[in-house]
UniProtKB/TrEMBL annotation:
GO biological process assignments: L-glutamate catabolic process
Protein name: Glutamate dehydrogenase
Any one GO molecular-function label of the UniProt entry: nucleotide binding
Binding site for NAD(+): 189, 219
Keyword annotations from UniProtKB, A to Z: NAD, Nucleotide-binding, Oxidoreductase
Amino acid sequence: MPEESLLDSALVRLDEAARHLNVDADVIEKLKYPRETTKARLMIRMDDGSRKSFLAWRCRYDDTRGPTKGGIRFHPDATAEEVEMLAFWMTFKCAVMNLPYGGGKGAVQVDPRQLSKAELERLSRSYIQAFSRIIGPDRDIPAPDVYTNSMIMGWMADEYSQIVGQGSPAVITGKPLALGGSVGRGDATARGGYYLVRHLAEELGLAGKLRIAIQGFGNAGQYIASLLAGDGHTIVAVSDSGGAVHAAEGLDLDALMAAKNDGHSVVHTAGRHGHQAIAADELVGVECDVLVPAALENMIHKHNAHTVKARLVLELANGPVTPEADGILADRNVVVLPDILANAGGVTVSYFEWVQNKQGYYWGLEEIHTKLRTIMEREGRAIWQLSVDRGVTPRTAAYVHALSRLAEAIEAHGTQSYFDS
Ligand SMILES: NC(=O)C1=CN([C@@H]2O[C@H](COP(=O)(O)OP(=O)(O)OC[C@H]3O[C@@H](n4cnc5c(N)ncnc54)[C@H](O)[C@@H]3O)[C@@H](O)[C@H]2O)C=CC1
Ligand SMILES: O=C(O)CCC(=O)C(=O)O
């Protein structure tokens, strides 16, 4: 038997949702395959004069509900399969939030930490040169993901404008403010999850001061730490690709941020401020109320899910809990607020950025926060209610919620449009 692919493992969630919804089999068939995945080899000049090439992809998974939308990841382990799986998740995430988008994703197989700033800029520009005919403000709109940021989005937006011969800010979101970025995009992924937890706190049984463990201390991880600490909760453990630190009485966030700003791992703070180094995987099982995976896929799996002590897992990362681990956590009454809802604040504020770019009129921070909170609470409440009514996990409820919107749109396009073209 052929081995199960990454996308096959993600499709388990689609099959599960389909069991709870009366949708045409043709709809499910359409959602099982990416519409198009384009591969390129990017060749750049290194600072020492040599040339180096990197594999890169852009997947437009499904555009039934609008232009495809999703980040670009720079990671040494990126593969075409991973990009397709991430683009599948984006399709469902945009539908969960009722954004007028389909799902896409891109990646370059590179460790950006090994490149100089000038090399990174050349690589970013060369990605846009390779995919300029795939992306577009009404076709496919990239954004940041793991190891990419607003500076990279700025270079990419600039390269696209040069290629098409005019400013075109709506082609990419997560840009610097000076290039048409939106206020509030920086912390939007974490803030969306934060609004969600606050809104459902009573249903989740989360009263009083909470102990929080965070896996991954980049954009999503750092901002969720600040937001939750700002409400008086205690951050007891954090990790990054270099390891993990723990302090039952609470970590010193300023010291952690300072270490990251200086280019160090969080482990750099161990032995000071009451921080103790622990093995990276130990973080999953530390004593806490809320576990926030904010790093990469498949970090909570069948071998460590039984160690989880938290009552809530808030998935800021995409796909951090494997389907087997989901089962183990559900059996142990650990609630998982799923990625396609919990981390959707990022793409939601990206949508706000795109709307502002198209209308050429920019909103203030309070307006962005209010709009984000309204959508997170509206869709979060609907999914929570669906999960209670149907007796399913919030993840299955989120997929059912998204699938019903996707099915409606696929059927509205007409069957001849999607199967015979
Ligand atoms: N940035 C965004 O707007 C959004 C990000 N996400 C997801 O959130 C997750 C994190 O993304 P960002 O914070 O943007 O990336 P980032 O690049 O800012 O941070 C990633 C963090 O993960 C850490 N990490 C890498 N490997 C690790 C490991 N084995 N163990 C522990 N930590 C590890 C890195 O050291 C870094 O601290 C990803 O799954 C991403 O797809 C989801 C929605 C939006
Ligand atoms: O901001 C966006 O458009 C997409 C962010 C993203 O890649 C994600 O939500 O996983």
